[in-house]
Write a structure and sequence with these properties.
Rossmann fold, six-stranded parallel beta sheet, about 20% strand
């Protein structure tokens, strides 16, 4: 179901500090800058344009309360506005599961297995038969993106592309737009 993943930048200075500040430092205003990086990535690939549903990877309610904002939704909203897409909050995430940061690839996969589901009937109608852009901030092993894409596929989405700001670690099947080399120092 997850057809392709593309990263706007490699997780190296200054991108690593900016992403970390957005995710963990309480700096939601950085979302606009990071979203611009993603907009450039999507505009460089015209096949990703054209009014696609743009779906953020949701966080748990517990993490949303702690952070005070949803960084993936902020990125998705800006991406939809700037590329002619439609923001669709198609997914919800079950509570439970631990943070992916310290988990190994197999543990990450198990941690998100079954974590995502369609948020409403309207969401299903908005994605059915459509090519969807699934947006998150960092793609590390692809476990979260894969689990979210599977839920979208069960809801009827045709294909799922995944733009993100930057890769967290090296992984198979994904590429960074600016460089072929992926930094191994990311925090996921």
């Amino acid at each position: 179901m997850l057809q392709a993943a593309r990263s706007a930048v490699v997780l190296r200075p200054p991108a690593d500090a900016i992403v970390h500040a957005l995710k963990y430092g309480g700096w939601p205003e950085l979302g606009a800058e990071l979203a611009e990086w993603m907009v450039g990535l999507v505009r460089a690939e015209p096949k990703l344009l054209g009014g696609r549903p743009v779906v953020p990877v949701p966080s748990t309610q517990r993490r949303l309360r702690a952070r005070g904002y949803d960084q993936a939704r902020m990125l998705a909203d800006k991406l939809a506005q700037e590329t002619g897409g439609t923001l669709v909050d198609a997914l919800a995430r079950r509570e439970g599961g631990e943070s992916q940061v310290a988990l190994h690839p197999g543990e990450r996969l198990a941690n998100v297995c079954g974590a995502f589901f369609l948020s409403s009937r309207e969401s299903s109608e908005a994605i059915r038969g459509r090519d969807v852009l699934l947006v998150d901030d960092v793609l590390t092993t692809g476990a979260t993106a894969g689990a979210a894409a599977e839920a979208l596929g069960r809801g009827g989405a045709k294909t799922c592309g995944h733009p993100d700001v930057c890769p967290g670690h090296s992984r198979i099947g994904c590429s960074a737009s600016d460089e072929n080399e992926i930094d191994e120092q990311g925090d996921g």
